[in-house]
Amino acid sequence: MLIAVYKTAKKEGMYLYVPKKDDFSAVPEALMNHFGHPQLVMMLPVHKRKALGVDKQKLLEAMEEPGFYLQMPPKEENWLETHRTELGLSPTSPKS
Fold first, then answer.
1. Which residues does the UniProt record annotate as the domain YcgL (predicted)?
2. I want to staple 62 with a disulfide (CB 3.0 to 4.6 A). Which of 33, 49, 69, 95 is the partner?
3. Domains, the chain, ordered by start
């Protein structure tokens, strides 16, 4: 099975997977508006790949229903909040 993978210029690390190239009919209009103009990254032969950047089973299930898969970028860690918490402080500094 070949799956088309698209990226968006609006958000780094966000990808949209659809079962057919240039077929966004299953993708909700609101999501397409938020995603913006999809830019084809690659045609992915899912069954020939052992490892993917996403859960292979979830991806295949999503191709059946709802007919697309949206990969969100990893959550950016706030290093300052983490450091403050490790020091036993409030994650955010108090306002003066």
1. 1-84
2. 69
3. 2-86 (3.10.510.20)
